[in-house]
Amino acid sequence: MKNKLITLALILFLLVGGTALAQVNPNEGRILGRVLDDQGNPLPGVSVEATSPKLVGKAATVTDNGGYFRLLALPSGTYEITFTLQGFKTIIRKDIILKLGDTINVNVNMEPAAIEEQITVVGQSPLIDVKSTVKGQVMTKETFLSLPRGRDFGSLITLVPGVSYESNVGGYSFDGATASENMWYVDGADVTNIHIGLKGQNVVLEMIDEVKVTAAGYNAEFGGSMGGVVNVITRSGGNAFHGDLMGFYDNNERYMLGKSRTYLRTNPYNSLQYLYWNDDDKYFNGGKDRDNYYGGEIVLDLGGYIIKDKLWFFASANPIYRHQTGLRDFNQRQGPFRSFTYKSYDLNGSIKLTAAPVAGLRISASYVNNFSTYKGTFPSLDGTSLDMDEYGKEGFDYPNWTGSFTADYSASNNLLISLRGGWHQYNTTDQKLKPISTLHYFVYGNTPFASQYTDPSLVHYSGWMNHLWSSRMNSKKMLQDKISSNLDVTYYVNFLGEHAFKAGAQFIYLHEDYDNMADYPIVYYYWNRSTTALGFTIGRGGTGDNYGQYGYYIVRSNPSAKYGYYWNIHSNNWALYLQDSWTISNKLTINYGLRTESEYVPAFAPNDPHNPFPGYSQKPINFKFSDKLAPRFGVVYDVFGDSSLKLFANFGVYYDVMKLYLAEGSFGGFKWISEYYTLNDLDWRKIGAHNDITSRTDIQGEGTGNLYRGSIDFRYPSFDSIDPDLKPVSQSEFSFGAEKKLAENLSLNARFTYKHLIRTIEDVGVYVRDPETGANYEMYYLTNPGYGYSRPAYQGGKFADYVLDDEGNSYAYWPEPKAKREYYALNISLDKRFSNNWQGGISYTLSRLEGNYSGLSSADEWGRNSPNVERFWDYWFMMYDAYGKPLDGPLPQDRTHYIKAYGSYTFPFGLTLGITGYCRSGLQNSSKLWINNTYMYPFNYADLPRNPWTVWADLFAEYNFKIGGKYTLGINLQINNITNTKTIQRKFTDMNYGYLWMEDWEILRGDLANNLMYWLNNNPPSAVGYEYTDTRYYRLTLADGTNVPVYNQWRNRFDTWSARIGFKFTF
Hints:
By secondary structure, the chain is mainly β. Among the domains are: 2-122, Sandwich (Immunoglobulin-like); 135-242, Ferric Hydroxamate Uptake Protein, Chain A, domain 1 (Beta Complex), CATH 2.170.130. Helices cover 5% and strands 47% of the residues. The chain is built from seven helices and 61 strands. The strands form twelve sheets. The chain has a 22-stranded antiparallel barrel. Strands 3-2-5-6-9 form a five-stranded mixed beta sheet, with no helix packed on it. Strands 10-15-16-13-14 form a five-stranded mixed beta sheet. Strand 25 and strand 26 form a beta hairpin. It is globular and about 115 Å long.
């Protein structure tokens, strides 16, 4: 009785604590089947029980009148299934392996028996899920702990065909999509960053039971991703106590870290000259005298039971410490040198409770923590940083945690009710180096006036500042919350076959609370310069009150407005879905369903009652259920009816979930008004001397003669610039293929995939004609490129039809093209599940990714993660080449070939060896021209040769000793890039320095196309552009002293090899 009370109390605690619920089903598995007698007749009333070391309690059911049974909501693991019926021989099926989210069929025939008799069948585990069209892979703890890996689950997923880590798309790419298009889950809780869409939490591998990666073919219950879905399941307890004590260590000595790679960089003392540079050779005596760096971590975990078969627990802790000290100077490596220190501390951990309080009900709750903090930073290695005492004080804390809850109730053989919940929170706190006074930043240095200073300490080069950049803001909090819930019901019914109907609802609450403002003025100095930003010239080229004897300066955080990030907002999003998995004649399965979502992006600032924002709305972007209808359809055919060969095909439409980054700049969250002043006094210390952002006198500088000339609001809320016909970002997908069981643990998979971007959302720079003056001016509209507001005026859009030259001749603008991204891929993979001491797999992907738009993260800007406000359509000509042809070709992240292999073998004497190998073709290269404050690809995409192929491998080795039969002690070594690959990874494709300036009509007239190469190889004629600008190639000084254009030279290589050692004690 006491045990029951304890169990019920803990269950109540879990239920109450789990009411903040999660978005996605954590992919529970199912074991289905049919029981027949020896004559092929269905047997009703057969008792079916499943047990597993991963399953708390037992899963039990009884066959129905058709002999069918269903064991639902099962965790992955190795199962033993027992079939009993009086008068028949009991059958026990052992070693049935169920993977995360899979559905497997286990059919049996029972023979009559006069006396109690038992038949045990070992093996014959179904290898193929013949109910699903999903493309992906499940990696269990037993799999990945014997392979080379990083310290979090992200390092595993690149083994999946079609998945890679690409720096130029900001992170992980699934089937050509970019890093901001994926969804990430921990125990079913959505941990995707709500601001920019990246992975919001790391989970240390030793805390993980398995990772499921889904790249295509998922049903209507899943949404929000145009890339991939990654679900991490943390470890659970069991009916026996078990634990581990592990440690890992690495440093940067030459025996653990190879010599640094040579790379291309600007000369630290001449920004127009490039050099090939090796940090080890230039700073550290060939790597022998590097900074003193080391990192160590401990992992301690314990799992077991509180009440056997009723309540399990698992807990882990993972403290990590990193330390680095190094010598730096502030005199261009001439000394004297001082010592600086960086320290970081992480505390990762997890707690999980799993319970089976009553028959048919299984619940669990988990908590995963990632806390990190650091203190200290370094001046630059080249000795050009400011000499100050703040380097050792910089630092922040980053709290990051997730709580999740699940409940699955099998009410009967054909009814399952599932509840999911999660709360993910991330914050930035405890700023260790706070702002103390006005920050002075020299965008351009005052060295041209050095001779006029009596105090040389006031003279500084470009880039100098009096405080560390990280201290310019008072960062009080940057809080992000995602609380979400999911309730669904699955019901099985037999009608013209078996139907598995599932209906569900999801609710997601998003919350951000930011207070990250500049309490003191931030002053940007442009010594000896002029600007026309206000519509007239101020600074050296100005006249009258607009003349600045020494240039001009710009101030953020000023009497007009405080600068920074300040908001407290939330939004509520909903999703509904209905789907059916219809199996006909035990061979053909048809999956069809519909998902619909509603979401809105909130205003980040309240309306100003004294100066209302035009077009203000509390929900400036608001998509209703009817705007996001996502049909899904798939067909699976079990050719022989024995789960040995399946053919499949699927079609689906997928919608992106809007990220909030767009709203901070467009809807009032980011406050940025810059004030412009003439600069008429050499003593810049007088500016902001009293640190008073409310006093223009203080910001002008008492007695300086500096004058305020105007301001610009760079982030005025643009509620009135949203296209009323705005449609959500979406993509369609079609795939087909086959999967064949070749042997008991060996399968072959082949799949063709086609993904088509339907539309995207971007801020498009639209040139609007002033009806009174006839002049064109640029406005940014939030729209679907190629649709609505971005179309020409004669098609009902906002874009001006033409531009006039100085003589009144008209030139038609090139219309804004639609976003295009087409992905075609053939994936072939061969996988051998672990058995007989070894596992392995190999895959090949042949793909083509083409169009003009890389995705929500910008490959054109090398991985910028600013969803929906990248630069793609900022200027009217950016989606064209110099000849007026729309951009269309292989996208920057396109790789034609990708081969991956993995394997591990455990020797009888305790040694395990694991290896992963990769072989991939290079990325494409495109010439980039800097023009009119932006860039374009003058010769379209991929005019330059691709980068070379890259081949590399990683190695893991572990030796385990048995101690007393109960304990195991192991030591391990991992070597990354054991092949010491040095292949070129990126080239320098910028064609010019400075900017080429041209009028719109000059580009449209063909001047750019006709004269581009002449201008690059010679100084451009002064008649071109608003003012003379040097647009020649950057120069590269080679080792022999010769100078060549840096254009199309390599810029970096594959990183050097590294090693990590570790130990493990298991009890």
